[in-house]
Amino acid sequence: MDAIRVVVRRGAVVEAVHRVHAATTWGESFGDPSLAFLLRSSVKPLQAIPFVEGYDDLGDDEIAISCASHHAEPAQLEAVRKVLARAGATVDDLENGTQEGRPDGRLGHNCSGKHAGMLAACRAHGWPLHPYRDPSHPLQRWIAELVGEPVAVDGCGLPTFASTLRDAAFLLTRTPVRIREAMRARPELVGAARGAPDTDLMRGHEGWIAKGGAEGLFCAAHADGRGLALKVEDGAFRAIPPALGALLGIESFREVPLTNSLDETVGSISV
């Protein structure tokens, strides 16, 4: 089938059109299922495995934030601090940089939970804390065994991995049960309290876990074994909710309001 066509309307005028490619484990696809790209943040639930396997007393909040692309909300920053304390580390140990407009320096980076989890994993397994993001570090070698050899550097400085859309549909089906449970228990830590499609899918639809990634990527898996991946051709993440709604038949996702800086609805984003 053709790629899913997501249309952005301001008033009655079509301002943009996004093409969304999709693949599923049950054989349904749209666009090009062999499309190649980088997994970016969608792989975080698998990158968290060494952290989770290092402890038997982790809270749901600690695991969920290690899988997160967070919005620097107070509860999210508190969860990162909790993981850093477990690691015996400080904000200065985080090897991610800072992001413009985010509070609290390195702590406010949307990947700080993943980095804190990596520091805690190093502490648990007796590895040197630094440089934990180096591809030759024992932590990154373990992750490479789980995901594949890295091919590029992510926005937060960690290695990232290549995939096709067809393979990415299976990605989160490999998430261990303990990580699934934590993501579903604390979905607001994984994305945001409101407006994040991965959080919204987990919060409102039983059995699903989900994780978005940069440049218009979205992966999800259900407890029944189903998996899916969406990739917006031009990288515009705003096209994900309507495309996901069309793929899964979720009416509340099919149309997203287009708002202005006054929080007025001035149009729509829809399939």
What does this structure look like?
- The chain has 271 residues and is an alpha+beta fold.
- It has one domain (4-270): Beta-lactamase.
- It is 32% helix and 22% strand.
- It has 11 helices and 12 strands.
- The strands form 3 sheets. Strands 1, 2, 3, 8, 9, 10, 11 and 12 form an 8-stranded antiparallel sheet that branches.
- Helix 3 (60-66) packs across helix 5.
- It starts with a strand and ends with a strand.
- The relative contact order is 0.20.
Give the low-confidence spans.
none
Structural class: alpha+beta
From the spread of the alpha carbons, the general shape counts as: globular
Give the biggest beta sheet. 8 strands, antiparallel
> Which band does the percent of strand residues land in?
15-25%
CATH topology: Beta-lactamase
**The number of domains:** 1
Q: What is the N-to-C order of secondary-structure elements (H for helix, E for strand)?
A: EEEEHHHHHHEEEHHHHEEEHEE
* Helicity level: 25-40%
Number of strands: 12
CATH architecture, by name, is: 3-Layer(aba) Sandwich
